[in-house]
Design a protein that fits this description.
This protein has 332 residues and is α+β, with helices and mostly antiparallel strands. It is built from 13 helices and 8 strands. The radius of gyration is 22 Å and the shape is globular.
């Protein structure tokens, strides 16, 4: 049974990722609304509906791209749509055109993530663009997957094609998803266990980074107890040093000392290209983790380690004390 509570941003932002599989939580305000939390920390709103005797889980969107109130408002719409009879469309549609429809109607991502998705589609699916969705066969799709280098990328593209053609079935352009006949590409999950000694080595390597902006951003991944996307989008206006908070979230002592030493000019705390916020400093991160002796460590690994170690408390002052106690223990 799913754990039930009233969904709010403070709790959802700090839900820990499970060590394996996924967790499910349920909203008390709208009991039909639920959320998946995967071991990678991805959080998705969904509803359940029994259709033609089959229990189906219908994804509403990923959090925080879809906020809580919007997700609650969409529950009735999504459930009503699920009960509609599938139309039969006689007119053919090109794969490239249909992918645009899929992105517009089904994809809910941040701007940066959407740019990456479109780049991957243009790179890997270009051989399919001129063909009609109705004419594509399992062999056509298998051929495209075979050309993708890297098993992990091929697996992600397979999942994307599965979703695209599921939508084609839903829209009535085809009756059967041709991807169903393709065996699932199995990817060995990377195991990276970060420990106290490893965190100390990481901090030592970060402190050797010559770029002040990147050095501060990487340290904030540790001191800020938040995922990289939130850290890199941090705004000065959201920080309250009088109350030691970042929006509704408490700041650790280490985070406050770090932030107060930075030049407070402009909108963003951590600047990226074109006066926007920092987005994806993967080259610098690879340099840092190589120096730390953990070349496969990701920024998400750091966040997961800290959130699993942190004793969560709904009281902000007590949570802040727990943050400080944990950092004191880890950095001794």
């Amino acid at each position: 049974m799913a754990h039930q509570f009233f969904f709010n941003t403070y709790i959802l932002d700090n839900l820990p990722a499970p060590e394996t599989g996924f967790d499910v939580v349920q909203d008390l305000s709208e009991p039909r609304l639920r959320m998946y939390i995967t071991q990678r920390g991805v959080k998705s709103f969904f509803v359940r509906k029994r259709i033609n005797g089959v229990d189906k889980r219908i994804i509403i969107g990923k959090y925080p791209d879809v906020d809580i109130e919007d997700a609650r408002a969409k529950v009735n719409e999504v459930l009503n749509d699920a009960c509609k009879k599938i139309p039969v469309r006689r007119k053919k549609i090109a794969f490239q055109e249909f992918v645009k429809l899929y992105i517009d109607n089904k994809v809910r991502r941040s701007e940066d993530s959407l740019v990456k998705l479109k780049r991957a589609i243009n790179l890997h699916f270009k051989d399919l663009f001129c063909k009609n969705v109705q004419d594509l066969t399992t062999d056509d799709l298998q051929s495209v997957l075979n050309k993708i280098s890297g098993q992990s990328m091929a697996a992600r593209m397979q999942e994307l094609l599965q979703s695209i053609f599921n939508y084609a079935v839903e829209m009535g352009y085809i009756k059967v998803n041709p991807m169903n006949a393709i065996p699932k590409i199995m990817v060995a999950h990377r195991q990276m266990v970060l420990r106290k000694s490893g965190l100390q080595s990481l901090i030592s390597a970060i402190n050797k980074e010559k770029n002040l902006n990147l050095r501060a951003a990487f340290l904030m991944l540790i001191y800020g107890f938040a995922p990289k996307t939130k850290i890199f989008k941090m705004r000065w206006d959201d920080l309250d040093f009088n109350h030691d908070t970042w929006g509704d979230f408490p700041l650790s002592n280490k985070a406050i000392l770090l932030l107060q030493d930075l030049p407070q000019d402009g909108e963003w705390v951590f600047l990226g290209m074109g006066r926007s916020h920092l987005t994806d400093p993967r080259v610098a991160w690879k340099r840092v983790v190589a120096e730390a002796g953990m070349p496969n460590l990701t920024m998400d690994d750091v966040h997961k380690f800290l959130m699993r170690s942190l004793v969560w408390n709904p009281d902000k002052d007590k949570l802040r004390d727990n943050m400080n106690d944990l950092l004191s223990d880890l950095l001794v």
